[in-house]
Write a structure and sequence with these properties.
Number of strands: 6
Shape: globular
Strand content: 15-25%
């Protein structure tokens, strides 16, 4: 039953309705990638730091955050039944995560004064709750969203990102959004932290609401076609790819028409 949606659901449905149905209607789960685990543990480490900062007014020491990252990582890897490490070594991804945490804590954390941490905001569209969990709201009334990325973002990515619009809608007010992008190190460049700020207009928010209304109508229809043609429709990037191909093949040859 469709009782709530989030930006991640909206984004997945826009990429491929069939993938969304496998995940949220049939409640199938695929093994997370190593990069997804890294991003999640990085996010949780920063969350814990800023929760503590709300109480004490001070950031944790970098070494404390690195120890925390290690503990959370070990537990997450132990708890997951399976993780798709692709061609990477778990230890290398963990070390990369250390560098991202260290870089953020030394270069950016001291400049952030949290007012709210992991704040839940909810508004309805066509009777369905749209749920946002905001990483941070600062004392300057700006939303901070933490991202990890293998490459630098550009301003267009921030200005067009639907998550920023979702945050503004669910908060019911226009607030600047800062994407704090932790860019992974390469052989020639160290880890970096990008700060990209973006702001939505009321016109953009109303356009977003209309889009969500139409998506909700499609979600309720029970018709979830695959959407091939993009990078995401492949065995490498979609864990449901094989199942999707199998179901499509079966539906063609079980229609009762034997020629």
């Amino acid at each position: 039953m469709l009782d709530h949606i989030s930006w991640s659901q909206i984004d997945m449905f826009n990429r491929c309705p069939r993938q969304w149905a496998f995940r949220y209607i049939e409640e199938m789960r695929i093994p997370p990638s190593g990069a997804l685990v890294e991003g999640s543990v990085y996010h949780q480490t920063l969350e814990n730091n800023f929760r503590m900062k709300l109480e004490t007014g001070k950031d944790l020491h970098v070494d404390e955050c690195l120890d925390m990252f290690s503990d959370i990582w070990d537990k997450r890897v132990s708890d997951e039944e399976s993780i798709d490490w692709e061609d990477e070594q778990p230890g290398d991804i963990k070390d990369e995560g250390f560098k991202l945490v260290e870089t953020y804590m030394t270069q950016r954390a001291h400049l952030v004064t949290p007012k709210l941490v992991e704040h839940v905001a909810i508004r309805k569209v066509l009777g369905i709750e749209v749920v946002s969990v905001l990483d941070l709201v600062t004392n300057e009334e700006k939303i901070v969203d933490h991202k990890t990325s293998s490459r630098m973002w550009n301003q267009d990515q921030a200005d067009s990102h639907g998550q920023a619009t979702t945050y503004n809608f669910t908060l019911d007010k226009i607030v600047p959004v800062q994407f704090h992008v932790a860019v992974k190190p390469t052989k020639t460049l160290p880890a970096r932290i990008q700060i990209l700020e973006t702001k939505r207009s009321m016109k953009e928010i109303l356009w977003w609401v209309k889009m969500v209304e139409e998506i909700l109508s499609q979600m309720r229809s029970g018709v979830y076609p695959p959407r091939p043609g993009g990078w995401y429709c492949s065995p490498k990037y979609c864990g449901f790819w094989g199942l999707c191909q199998e179901k499509c093949s079966v539906s063609i040859f079980t229609g009762g028409n034997n020629g």
